[in-house]
TrEMBL record:
Belongs to the glycosyl hydrolase 13 family. It comes from Actinoplanes italicus. It holds the Pfam family Alpha-amylase. Residues 10-96 form the Glycoside hydrolase family 13 N-terminal domain. One of its GO terms (molecular function) is hydrolase activity, hydrolyzing O-glycosyl compounds. The lineage of its organism: Bacteria, Bacillati, Actinomycetota, Actinomycetes, Micromonosporales. GO terms for biological process: carbohydrate metabolic process. This is Glycogen debranching enzyme GlgX. Residues 177-270 form the Glycosyl hydrolase family 13 catalytic domain.
Length: 311
């Protein structure tokens, strides 16, 4: 497969009309494999050829929107030093704009054996993980602009994308509980009638459902740049991005601003006993705050298992 050097910026997968540039940050990685998946699930691995300013990158001609991918990061695995690289774990791109699929909980998602937290588990996690997706970045925003209504004139309606419309009899069943459902004329008319000027959406970043349960509110983020695929009626191979943008544009046209409830303090990877899904396997000490006295453990200010390193 043809691979060119590409560029270290922007991070993530960036389609330019002829191919896609891939860039991922990792200070501790010794090698990064880009894993491409075809429609039958077959995996092709390509080494990212360049490393510049701690960013691994490469450009693949003819890789187009809809392509599913992930990363395998080779590097040190020493939990006592906070190092958790394990190339048997397929990792989501932290900068993925779309994610296809969900997790099927299995011990392979964990970098250690359940009988010994300090051991190393080399079971391949790919059969149990979702995939990052290359998206089409182009969208016709027309003359859409932020409305910037003064705060003293703003009336905010906190809303859950699914809960807002999932049982609404006036909205077609095929778009209930989705971004399209929230932007349906029936819903917009209701919001305008009650005087709402802005909807504040409960988390719409891609989030993880815990093993054996459903996370309804969504405060368990794994993809900070990806609209949650469970709220899409357009599909999960980039359609959720187009649908989300269309929702925002439609609400703006109705004079309604969109505010996002965001969760930037932690991720769904949990503590030292949590799974290795993305950040933890790419560069654990860069992405997370670790306990200085024993970097095996995570500094947890949120009660959720970890705290992002934003210092």
């Amino acid at each position: 497969m043809l691979v060119w050097p590409g560029n270290p910026y922007p991070l993530g997968a960036t389609f330019d009309g002829g191919g896609t540039n891939f860039a991922v940050f990792s200070e501790i990685a010794e090698r990064v494999e880009l894993c491409l998946f075809d429609d039958d699930g077959r995996e092709t691995r390509v080494d990212l050829p360049e490393r510049e300013a701690l960013v691994w990158h490469g450009y693949l001609p003819r890789v187009v929107p809809g392509q599913r991918y992930g990363y395998r990061v080779h590097g040190p695995y020493d939990p006592s030093r906070g190092l958790r690289c394990n190339p048997s774990k397929l990792l989501l791109d932290p900068y993925a704009k779309a994610i296809d699929g969900d997790y099927r909980w299995d011990q392979a998602l964990f970098a250690y054996g359940f009988d010994d937290p300090d051991s190393r588990n080399d079971d391949d996690s790919a059969p149990f993980t979702p995939r990052s997706v290359v998206i089409n970045p182009y969208f016709d925003w027309g003359n859409d602009r932020p409305l910037r209504k003064p705060f003293h004139q703003t009336v905010i309606y906190e809303a859950h994308v699914k809960g807002m419309t999932i049982q609404h009899p006036g909205i077609p069943e095929d778009v209930r509980g989705t971004y399209s459902g929230l932007a349906h004329p029936v819903m917009i008319k209701h919001l305008q009638r009650v005087g709402v000027t802005a909807v504040e959406l409960m988390p719409v970043h891609q989030f993880v459902h815990d093993n054996g349960g459903a996370n309804y509110w969504g405060y368990n983020t794994i993809g900070f740049f990806a609209p949650h695929n469970g709220y899409s009626s357009f599909g999960c191979r980039g359609g959720q991005v187009q649908e989300f943008k269309a929702m925002v544009k439609t609400l703006h046209q109705a004079g309604i601003e969109v505010i996002l409830d965001v969760v930037y303090n932690h991720t769904a990877e949990g503590n030292h006993l949590g799974p290795t899904l993305s950040f933890k396997g790419i560069d654990n000490p860069a992405y997370y705050r670790l306990v200085d006295e024993d970097k095996r453990y995570y500094y947890d200010t949120t009660g959720t298992g970890n705290s992002l390193n934003v210092r």
